[in-house]
Amino acid sequence: MPLTQRQIFRRRRIIVFSAVAVAFSLTFYLPLTLLAPLDEVSASVTTIDAPELSVPEITLPNYGASAIGALDRPGVLASAGSTDPLPIASITKVITALVVLEAKPLSVDEAGPTITFGQTDIDYYNTQQAQYGLVWPVYDGQQLSQRDVMNVVLLASANNYAQSLAHWAYGSEDAFVAAAGAWLADHGLSGTTLTEASGIQESNRSTAADLTELARLAIENPVVAEIVSTSSVEVPELGTVSNRNQLLGIDGVDGIKTGTLDDDWACLLFAADITIGGETKSFIGVVVGGPDHPTVAAAIRELIADATAGYSEVTLVSDGQVFAEYDTPWGDEASAVSQTTVNAVVWGEDEISMTVDVEPVRLADAGQRTGSVQFQVGNESFDVPLVLSDEIDDPGPWWRLTNPAAMF
Question: pLDDT per residue over 49-71, tens digit each?
Fold first, then answer.
């Protein structure tokens, strides 16, 4: 049966429109779907709790004043007792040494200039002896290097040598006291007063907080740090000069200075290096006003033990730990993971915070960096890179052609 004109026209229209559709597909749709860039895929961050720490328990003496700190942390870890300035006895000599080194600096391996003793130094000896202060022999014309005199001051704690050292460096006791006052102010030690160089006077006073900072300054000075960690040295004409710090070498103690007034006022400014979790922690602190030195030594050993226990090694992140997930519309899945394990030695009162920062991706290889996780532990920061656990691959032509809504 022959086709009517209408049927012929309709079939021609179908052919034309089909041809147009095919042409459109070949010209626009297929290239757009097969070649168009994929949308970025954002990550879903995994909920992870930061490690929790227990509050340290530190036993502090119930007399005088005391404090303990760590060299890599500001302030103190714990303190107790009077907050008023108390007599510091021969801890004074640490300040004397540091102030003298401001005027007469030395390198660690340097003996320094020669100091010649005279009548003024003999007068210091006689005055100190009359006050039952600790003295070492001196005579008119005696000559010692600056380093030898500092050894006698800081190890043997000779009061007359402290006065002689200060007088030599500044020309008079008054000039030294003025310089010491300026030095204390410059270092923010507002709770400390010095009226003479030896510590025999109770007017030399300080607080436990200031003394902890003084310990920090002493240990950070290489000359003072080396002297106070030495058990004994040989000084010309004087023989063996031994360190009066009986705690030296025990429980990591490597300084700093004893102090004594009468029979019932014992002090010790201390420093100790302890290994915790493979890291060396340097403790600094003081006990002032103990009944005797054995009691003070026992208190400091307990302080160091408690402070050591207050630190712990925690794992911030483990190798392969997942911090975010990628789930693509075409079914590829990958995780943002750490490539390393990071441990930290943490003080028990530190707050640990964590921030995960991950980037959106399109196509990516396994192992490609995709962000980081930042940990804030007290005043220390850790930045750990995150990488993709698996490849995010192209979905292929079939998915592209059958999912136009996901493409545009």
Answer: 877 788 899 999 999 999 999 99
pLDDT tens by residue, 262-286? 878 999 999 999 999 889 999 999 9
How far is 347 from 274, CA to CA, in rounded Å?
A: 14
The domain ranges of the chain are 1-35, 38-52+316-407, 65-290
Strands 342-347 and 311-317: antiparallel
Contact 93, 180 (CB under 8 A): no
HSE-up of residue 215 (Cα within 13 Å, Cβ side)? 37
Q: Which two tokens stand for residue 312?
A: 């712990």
The answer to whether the bond into 352 is cis (omega within 30° of 0) is no
**Placement of tokens 């800081």 in the chain:** 154
CATH match of 65-290 with 3.40.710.10: yes
Element spanning 205, H or E: strand 205-206
Compute the distance between CA of residue 99 and CA of residue 170 in angstroms, rounded to an integer: 10
CATH code given to domain 38-52+316-407 = 2.60.410.10
Q: Would you list the DSSP string of 55-103?
A: PP-----SSSEEEEEETTSSS-SEEEE--S-EE-GGGHHHHHHHHHHHH
Sheet holding 279-290, edge to edge: 78-81, 65-70, 279-290, 265-276, 253-261
Round to whole Å and give the CA distance between 305 and 321: 34
